[in-house]
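Q: Got one fold?
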Amino acid sequence: MKVLIIGGVAAGTKVAAKLKRDNYDYQVTILTKGKDISYAGCGLPYYVGNVIENKEDLIVNTPESFASLTGVEVLTEVEVTKVNPSEKSVEALDLKTNETSTYTYDKLVIATGADPIKPPLEGIGLEGVYFMRTPSDAIALREAIEAGNVKRAVVVGGGFIGLEVAENLAAQDIRVSVIDMADQVLPGFEPEIANYVEKHLAKLGIMAFTGTRLEAILGEGKVEKVKTDKRTMKADAVVLSIGIRPNTAFLADTGLEFSPNRAIIVNEQMETNVKDIYAVGDCAFVSNMLTGKPAYAPMGSTANIEGRILAQNLNGNKLSYGGALGTAVAKLPNLNVGKTGLTEDAAREAGYDVETITTVVDDKAHYYPGASLFIIKMIADKSTKKLLGLQVIGEGVVDKLVDMAVVAIALNASLEDLKDLDFAYAPPFSTAIHPFANTVNVLLNKINGEFDSITPREYLAGKADGYKLIDASIVPKIDGAPYMDLSKVHEELADYGKDEKLLLVCDKGKRSYMLQKRLRSFGYTNLLSLEGGTIFNELKK
């Protein structure tokens, strides 16, 4: 069988390698526009910051090594310009010779990925404007830094790549600002989580200006300033990371079906609507595992999963891709962030009876050196208690909690299924009650009516207005608030009526919960505990 693959980064090389491994007699050919294949796109910000020292380490395989290892024919700097489904052929331009050739196929795999969005802005062609999609992008930016040409930088786009680039620039004493048109950094995260991250970055000198539109890049021959709809900012370098666009323009006349963002629509077997044509990776539009609705999931991890499934299907199987969950994780300065599943709003839009909890929990035994905190938001369906999503931030291994949630969601687990599992424990790694299980238990308490709380989002919206704030910390911490020491509350309180509205607040939320239980036993009825406590919330004056 003759299999032709267009594109040679993550998905394309995965399809090719698995195909040849299982059927070495197949004729498998990769056509790719770039000079490199199988490069570490997600590692580019870390090359900029010298965390990855050698540019050669960004290249997982060279065309020569990949071909030798797998038996796949790899043709680089060959741009496919047209696909002819009726003839089962493609036309391609050799960028080195400018000659056009025709390649035939039995099966065609489109794995062309996506290109960075390059808006038609004044000054976008100036020296000092960078993107962050290929190794050459990262290499050029690092060379400019090492030459001493970058003292101030503006990163346009507050997603994972943008913030990772900002971190690595700031680590080299470059003054960094981030601008984004959206209302928050970290698209796909809960607004209150994103707001916490934005404030954290500001404390470290990385200023994020959200709700800010880039209008022009100014300078005489090179970048000197950026103009936004709010202000003009000095800059020696501008890094544009405002999103990606599926690289599918050359497929316009093929009869393929596309999503609104021009990704190729595929089914669970990665088949397009045109016979013997398949699509995988950042150019494909898949589905959401929870809702079954179409979803765009441009990640190296999902690209490899899709590629492996497709290779097995081309080898005669009929495997299905269950869909993506939007799982993501990123390292930021002194803070890691991760997420999977549905957000609170997305879960409501999908028709779930949503309940959420926000906890602040130890990431390992509090007495162990290096112990820190996780801030976790967990989303579940109130009626079925099915886990729907999780977001977490902290200095520790947030990916562990995210991955636990991925498995739970994929296996359709309920909170009841998860609360008593035998998770690993030792002081250097976790707490005796695992942070994940701890959060599950608190959410179950809330669903079962054993815990009356107010979420950080509800607090900001004014749900606690009319309540008297009570400081329930271990020692008094909240200026101007009456203090209530749990260890001394053993009977009814003379200063408070049984129906008085009291908002109990402590550092993390745990002690206010314990105080709430104690006061309930004495007949107090209007008690709310603020989830996340003073660590996560900024209290109103």
Notes: The longest helix spans residues 300-314. The two ends are 71 Å apart (CA to CA).
